[in-house]
Amino acid sequence: MTHDDGDAQRPPGGRRRGVGARGVAVGAFAAALAAGLALAAVHGGSGSGGSGAKTPRTDASARPSASPSPTSESEWNRAPESLAAVGDSITRGFDACSLLADCPSASWATGTDRSVGSLASRLLERPKAHSSNHAVSGSRMADLPQQMRRAATHDPDLVTVMTGANDACRQTTAQMTPVAEFRESFREALRTLRADRPKAQVYVASVPDLLRLWEQGRDNPTSVRVWGLGICQSMLKDPQSDRPVDDKRRQEVRERVVAYNGALREVCAADARCRYDEGAVFDFRFSAGELSSWDWFHPSRQGQQRLADLAYRQITAEEDAGSD
100 by DSSP, 3-state: which? Predict the structure, then answer.
């Protein structure tokens, strides 16, 4: 999820507020939200730098035992020593800690928040020193090559990729990124990384199922009101409508996301050091508590934790989830 039209997180401490409290917050910040959504779509957040203050490390018993460095193109190192993250507002932790703001400390990939337990905190000996976050809120797949170029300068053992929701989340379905362009931009991003870091491993998360997000919030008065301010209109416009034209529009967005994921899998499969999540994020059913209470679209802290769980299992698995 991103912010050409949306990403979501939840308030500090991970506790959900009641509908009444949400209503007050939405009413107080409606104007700011409408303006901020447009601003985030154009500018996003800072796309570089470390993940924030150092977090206590995960207990050593929870981390994978170090495996030998890969000796052939097909071997996967389950214990990388450095990590760089690229992507969109989900990886920046947008709306995780406060309204209309990135919160990289809550990022599933590089965050330092203990309640999230980021991938970096689980995998790395020194997560603050050896991880970097180059994601940009509002970015799309076409922006990934530039992010990869920045990530490569940090000489990472592992690069995490989560992007594509903003390519589908547009004002209209006609504005969604064509699949061929999406695929070629991803290929270019991998080529860019390989030019400077040929042995870096790449973990690619699937694009979330935007239709399930709509299903989760379509009957909630607060989410309907917030979505009406402009979040992901290709999917979330007229969220309570059951008209055939609106059902068709939503299905078109979902089919485009499925096609994007097919492109991710195809391109990743052609790279011996790339591991696709085989649709784990797409298949994950975000609950209300795992979505931001600000925009009901981006993952909350709890949702970020779930993303970290999925990635950790995939990265530390002995074999690629897609292998026979």
Answer: coil
